[in-house]
Amino acid sequence: MSTITASAPAKLILCGEHAVVYGRPAIALPLVGIRARAEIAPGQPGSGISILARDLRRRWRVADDPGHPLSELITSTLAHYGAPGSTPDLRITIKSTIPIASGMGSGAAVATALVRALAVYLDRDLPPEAISALVYASEQRFHGTPSGIDNTVIAYEQPIWFIRQSSLPAVSSQLQEASNNEQRTIEPITIAAPFTLLIGDTGVRSATREPVGHVRQRWQADPARYEALFDQIGRLVTKARSLLAQGDLASLGPLLSQNHILLQQAGVSAPELDALVAAAQQAGVLGAKLSGAGWGGVILALVAPEHQNAVAHALRQAGAKRVIATTVREHFV
Ligand code: PMV
Predict the structure, then answer these.
(1) pLDDT in 10s for each residue of the chain, 333 residues
(2) Residues 119 and 205 in one domain
(3) Which residues pair with 78 in a beta bridge?
(4) Which domain, by its residues, includes 219?
(5) Are strands 287-291 and 160-165 parallel, antiparallel or unpaired?
(6) Ligand 1 within 6 A of 150 CB?
(7) I need a surface site. Which of 29, 75, 299, 331 has the fewest CB within 10 A?
(8) Ligand 1 pocket, 212 CB below 6 A?
(9) Run of H or E including 30
(10) Residues 184 and 235 in one domain
(11) One-character DSSP codes across 179-208
């Protein structure tokens, strides 16, 4: 066996986070240039499977820590698609340049890279929905109630429109899947004009499940208020999809800024996120918002190319630990 490598991209939620957990649509984008990688090499005979997670500075044997999320993912992937009974001897190395716990899908990207590498090892040509389902099951075990948007956009590696809903009318879609008794609508979106996003990282790490759990508590305490907020977000996301299809970026920007205000009202922003959004707006963006679960992590800013440098500078001045520029297109080649 020669060494196998596979990778998976980071992701960004353009609009609709949190409301997507409650059945409203969201739009997510892969960041194809920022990736997690998994490498599988043969291990010593009888050694079983060992994992070296470079960025976590951790090495362990699956047999010694079977409950670790990556150990469980390996075990379940081999149980689904491998030869029954035998444990192979493998050395698995994980590397990633995606900031951890920052709204960029680092966990789902690592898991997807790992499943892709295992699929090559097992000589299985797994379609994106099969990879996505394994990663989703893993996220469910460790993160509570994920909507499934992260694993989906990362497995498909294209901009998507995503709705999680238990009883959906049939929609014509190239990419509709049903898994774990939940039905989702997954559709490719039309992007008439490529656009540039700047991502500003607050450097504040926040585990997704905490703001997600907070929203759930507040929704339970005041369902009418939260349902109304989610409806507003859902309408905005629907509008954003048609603006992307028309290439109307000037109208898309204010919608993104409006989405940030609704996320503030939902209680998931943070002073560091608000500071970056405000700095971006003062420096002349089309629109800006937090992206992902919130309480930390990143903001995104939609910028005209001529303002990119000034906005990047303003973000750094306002405390961004890292600024990443990305151009979003309908298809990545
Ligand atoms: O993993 P994050 O931080 O990008 O957040 C995921 C987006 C949420 O809508 C907040 C949660 C979910 O499962 O969709």
Answers:
(1) 899 999 999 999 999 999 999 999 999 999 999 999 999 999 999 999 999 998 888 999 999 999 999 999 999 999 999 877 778 999 999 999 999 889 999 999 999 999 999 999 999 999 999 999 999 999 888 777 789 999 999 999 999 999 997 533 333 333 444 444 468 899 999 999 999 999 999 999 998 889 999 999 999 999 999 999 999 999 999 999 999 999 999 999 999 999 999 999 999 999 999 999 999 999 999 999 999 999 999 999 999 999 999 999 999 999 999 999 999 988 754
(2) no
(3) none
(4) 195-328
(5) unpaired
(6) yes
(7) 331
(8) yes
(9) strand 26-42
(10) no
(11) ETTEEEEEEE---SS-EEEEEEE------T
For residue 89, the CA-to-ligand 1 centroid distance in Å is 35
Q: How far is the CA of 277 from the centre of ligand 1 (A)?
A: 19
Residue nearest (by alpha carbon) to ligand 1 atom 10: 293
Which of 11, 29, 149, 205 has most ligand 1 atoms within 8 Å of CB, for mutation? 149
Q: What is the CATH number of the domain that holds 215?
A: 3.30.70.890
Ligand 1: distance of its center to the CA of 2 in Å? 36
Residue 131 carries which side chain, given as an amino acid letter?
I
**Rounded Cα–Cα distance for residues 164 and 153 (Å):** 13
Say if ligand 1 is within 6 A of residue 139 CB. Answer: no
Q: Identity (one letter) of the amino acid at 318? A: A
Structure-token match 């409301």, residue found = 19
pTM of the model: 0.92
Q: Which positions ≥6 away from 299 have C-beta within 8 Å?
A: 199, 200, 202, 260, 273, 276, 277, 280, 288, 289, 290, 291
User: Is 102 inside any structural domain?
Assistant: yes
Domain shared by 10 and 129, yes or no: yes
Total tally of structural domains belonging to the chain: 2
Q: How far is the CA of 149 from the centre of ligand 1 (A)?
A: 7
157 and 23 within one domain: yes
Q: Are residues 168 and 201 in the same domain?
A: no
From ligand 1's centre to the CA of 136, what distance in Å?
A: 12
> Is 211 within the bounds of a domain?
yes
